[in-house]
Amino acid sequence: MAHDHAHGAGSGNRTRIAIALAIVATVLVVEILGGVLSGSLTLLADAGHMTTDTIGLVVALVASVLAARPATDRHTFGFQRFEVLAALVNGLLLTGVAVSVGIEAVRRLTERVEAEVLPVPMLVVATLGLAANVAAFLVLRGGDRSSLNLRGAMLEVLGDLLGSVLAIAAAVAILLTGFAPADAIASLLVAVLIVPRAALLLRDVVRVLLESAPRDTSVELIRTHLLETRGVTAVHDVHVWQLSTDAPVFTAHVVVEPAVLERGGSSALLEALGECLREHFDVAHSTFQLEPAGHAEIEEPGHR
Predict the structure, then answer these.
(1) Contact (Cβ atoms closer than 8 angstroms) between residue 249 and residue 286
(2) Predicted confidence (pLDDT) at residue 260 exceeds the cutoff of 60
């Protein structure tokens, strides 16, 4: 279970994200203008793709700032869920871009719409987009490898590289052969590439919002490790969820031997249990309720 103990990038990583954001946002404007002027649906599709990347970079930048804010009496867990809510918007936007571009591409292909595409401006703009994506990727790649914010932003930009390559290929095909449908075909491929990313992103968002256990977490394995701790006789009422994609939280009721409570060993046991989760499962935020045997019988049924 991966966990970013810093809950976001440090000041150096924020600088990298800001530089990448400036590069991508600038080329986004150029691609929109180039798509409108050249009539290229592929450029507009890639611009839509880059719009989501811009949002993703903004989210990464803002999340790294908000994550550093301390918790309050009103927001007891802090502001880490902002990342998840923003990812939901990003996923829905990705889906909308893919559907709209796909519909228009199919319409152009099936209805044989003779859309005038200017290959030279299209090629120039697509090449600029590719160069910008490469530059942004290299900027982000040099950052902290442990930052999930940076890793996510880097993958967003990496996905755009292929979109720019497809736009260049379509422009070259039109320029050399005059085959105008190459633009619609390339834009359809861009749309197809967007859908899996949107689906995976929305799946992860839903998992967090439903407070499901992280995908790579085995509750039974955690329970087994805790039961191996000296003085522990049973573990029940276990809950594992995520505040955000990189902030797992664990709570459990732990039944202990009477001798542990009698000799005042609660503090040492709590430290041992917390250390177990930190070392073996990378969970930094854990809460345990120590209780004597028989206490579980007076609790509400249904806990496990």
Answers:
(1) yes
(2) yes
Pairing, β 248-256 against β 285-291: parallel
Please provide residue 300's backbone torsions phi and psi, each rounded to the nearest 5 degrees. Answer: -60, 140
Main-chain dihedrals φ then ψ at residue 114, nearest 5 degrees: -90, 75
Biggest CA-to-CA distance, the chain: 86
**Phi, psi (degrees; rounded to nearest 5) at 240:** -130, 125
What single letter denotes the amino acid at residue 186?
A: A
Quick check: helix, strand or coil at residue 241?
Answer: strand
CATH superfamily of 219-298: Cation efflux protein, cytoplasmic domain (3.30.70.1350)
pLDDT tens profile 217-257: 888 999 998 999 988 999 998 999 888 766 789 999 999 99
Ranges of each domain in the chain: 11-209, 219-298
**Topology of 11-209 in CATH?**
Alpha-lytic protease prodomain-like (1.20.1510)
Which H, E and C letters describe 173-235, residue by residue? HHHHHCCCHHHHHHHHHHHHHHHHHHHHHHHHHHHHHCCCCCCCCCHHHHHHHHHCCCCEEEE
pTM of the entire predicted model: 0.72
SS3 state at 249: strand
CB atoms within 10 A of CB 169: 17
